[in-house]
Amino acid sequence: MAGVLAWFWNERFWLPHNVTWADLKSTEEASFPQAEDLLLAAPLAFCLFLLRMLFERFIARPCAVGLRIQSSGPQRATPNAILEKVFTAITKHPDEKRLEGLSKQLDWDVRSIQRWFRQRRNQEKPSTLTRFCESMWRFTFYLYIFTYGLRFLKKTPWLWNTKECWVNYPNQPLTVDLQYYYIVELSFYLSLLLSQFTDMRRKDFLLMLLHHLATISLISFSYVNNMVRVGTLLMCLHDAVDVLMEAAKMANYARCQTLCNFLFAMFSMFFISSRLGVLPIWILNTTLFESWEMVGPYPSWWLFNLLLLLLQALHSYWSYLIVKTACRAVCRGRAGKWNPLNVSKDDRSDMETSSDEEDGPMANQKPHSSATNGTNNKTHEANGYGPCPEEHH
Questions:
Q1: Coil, strand or helix: which one is 98?
Q2: What is the DSSP string of 252-321?
Q3: For 335-354, how does the pLDDT look when each residue is reduced to its tens digit (9 = 90+)?
Q4: DSSP, residue by residue, 106-137
Q5: Which of 22, 27, 275, 293 has the most CB atoms around its CB within 10 Å?
């Protein structure tokens, strides 16, 4: 074990040339980031997870009720033992051959069976009220941490001159405010990682899992090798946009469509300009070029920048989804089918509907017999709930 730890914490990987861990030991005169500090994030993440549950129950839920957000979920599928067994034990998305077999067995037409499976899948999704509570929690945290980070950074020289991130690096003392900022951010993303497996599963589950892991790795890496100055710039830049994103989602869940459209337009402009403009020009420029000039590359420097580039690739993909959603909304608005920037639906569908409305008169009728009704296997999985891609960092 000692050999493994010595290999993992190899100074030649983590630190620049001619710098050792002994140089970064905290003293009475100056404090430096220590790897064991990150252990504080685990219990704090659990506390944030518990705080979130209390917040959603006693603060967010009453707010949602006051806004008349329905707590009822989607329409429930008609109980059917045979279909339920297929759904739970075999597949939630039956293919055409299985659909035809079930149609003969139940004397239902294929379209009715497709509708049953769609309703059964939707049945596992939380209600609009639950999603509103989740967004309100994230909005509250992002607003708090962004405000804190902005107030902290206004007093620092590296906000105005990014070369200050590398002056005397890595021998840069760690202040209490900076350490608090880092540990709280890391704890929050650890709690988000945990909630990935407890919240509803969205279509971009793997992308968000990759995003959270990359973010946690970036925060941890930058803390251990004392790249905390550039790390604070990165965190503050991301938190600013996430405030707008969660606000737009809350407005959408509350059916305040005009406000939702405005917030989504603001979010789109800030997201694209910050993630595709400010981040490469401001953050990547200093981590790739200014640090190369003032410090020089070393192994963990390469890994840190590789993670940043991975994050940038995710931002590019989400920017594409945002532009696609906005263009589709504008096009439908011109056709008279949808108001411009009505973003209540996007490409990350949580709820499924058919080409015929589930809420219409046919929704409550019994399935037609296959002998009396032709089949139509074409279904339309429309978009479901939110105005924009998840957070993203």
A1: helix
A2: HHTT-HHHHHHHHHHHHHHHHHIIIIIIIIIIIHIIIIIHHHHT---HHHHHHHHHHHHHHHHHHHHHHH
A3: 554 443 444 444 444 445 44
A4: HT--HHHHHHHHHHHHHHTSPPHHHHHHHHHH
A5: 275
Residue 76 contacts residue 119 (beta carbons within 8 Å): yes
Q: How far apart are CA 260 and CA 245, in angstroms?
A: 10
Amino acid found at 72? S
Checking if the pLDDT of 377 tops 70, the result is: no
Rounded CA-CA distance 27/211 in Å is: 36
390, 249 contact by CB (below 8 A):
no
Tokens standing for residue 346:
């996007």
Tokens standing for residue 45: 């993440």
* 355 vs 338: CA distance, rounded Å: 17
* Rounded to 5°, angle at Cα 126 from 269 and 368: 110
Calpha distance 306→288 (Å, rounded): 10
Q: 379 pLDDT band (50/70/90 cuts)? A: very low
> DSSP H helical segments within the chain, as ranges?
2-8, 11-14, 41-55, 61-66, 81-89, 96-106, 110-123, 128-153, 176-195, 205-224, 228-253, 257-273, 285, 291-294, 299-334
CB 239 within 8 A of CB 142: yes
- 250 and 69 in contact (C-beta within 8 Å)? no
